[in-house]
Design a protein that fits this description.
Number of domains: 3
Number of helices: 4
Radius of gyration: 27 Å
Strand order of the largest sheet: 1-6-5-2
Structural class: alpha+beta
Strand content: 15-25%
Helix content: 40-55%
């Protein structure tokens, strides 16, 4: 009887000890999450813990991975769009130089097919941007990571003398004279990719940082021009995002 009593008492002490250790461990993790959340999350992810409820781990790592995959798809699509833009422009110039009606009709047919493919790419690109915006919002809700505030955005195409926009431009911002861009505050008329730094002439291949939403305001820090093979210049602006309320 005494042995049973001692065993019961020992079991109770052991349960209390385990409970205290568990509470201490949870408190320690809580403190670490308060002062160094990204470090804790990074260590957990490295250890294979992409699911759980500590610091939003159950969904955040998965959404982050999905966001990276979406950026990769957006990168490919945006490069293809620019390629089609260049092809369509060169076909139009070639049509103006050709006098043979048979060849003109063939070029016109190729141009129509390129325009159709370009429109399909643009539709898919818009869907990717909407998806990436939603993923960014989910990640930001459960993370202390600060959203990218500076980067490069594509504005459109200007003439060879850089004084006027070509037809259909600016593509991503409300109209403003090209010569007034430096130091200006731009208002987006579409969702736009924000890109990392890169060498001149390869802005379109720079890594995607985020999607900046339509009607957001951007302050222009710098400009860069990439010469188009068909003439004119593609205009890129380094911008800073204004704080949103």
């Amino acid at each position: 009887m005494a042995d049973t009593s001692h065993l019961s008492s020992f079991s109770g002490i052991l349960r209390d000890l385990i409970s205290a250790l568990r509470d201490a461990l949870l408190f320690g993790v809580f403190v670490l999450l308060l002062f160094s959340p990204e470090t804790v999350k990074a260590r957990l992810i490295e250890a294979g813990f992409t699911k759980g409820t500590i610091g939003g781990m159950e969904w955040e790592a998965q959404v982050k991975e999905a966001s990276d995959n979406t950026k990769s798809a957006g990168q490919t699509l945006s490069q293809a769009k620019l390629g089609y833009d260049e092809l369509i422009s060169r076909l139009a110039q070639l049509e103006n130089k050709v006098t043979n009606p048979v060849i003109q009709r063939e070029l016109d047919s190729i141009g129509d097919a390129a325009q159709s493919s370009r429109a399909e790419l643009a539709s898919a690109d818009q869907a990717i941007k909407r998806s990436l915006v939603a993923q960014q919002q989910l990640v930001s809700q459960g993370s202390s990571t600060v959203a990218e505030t500076t980067g490069w955005v594509f504005l459109g195409k200007v003439t060879e003398d850089k004084h006027s926009w070509e037809q259909g431009s600016p593509k991503t911002i409300h109209s403003i004279e090209p010569e007034a861009l430096v130091g200006a505050t731009l208002t987006l008329k579409d969702d736009v990719y924000l890109r990392d730094d890169s060498a001149t002439n390869v802005r379109a291949m720079a890594p995607l940082l985020a999607v900046v939403k339509m009607e957001e305001k951007l302050d222009v820090i710098d400009l860069d021009y990439s010469h188009a093979k068909a003439g004119g210049w593609f205009v890129w602006a380094k911008v800073k995002r204004q704080p949103t309320s």
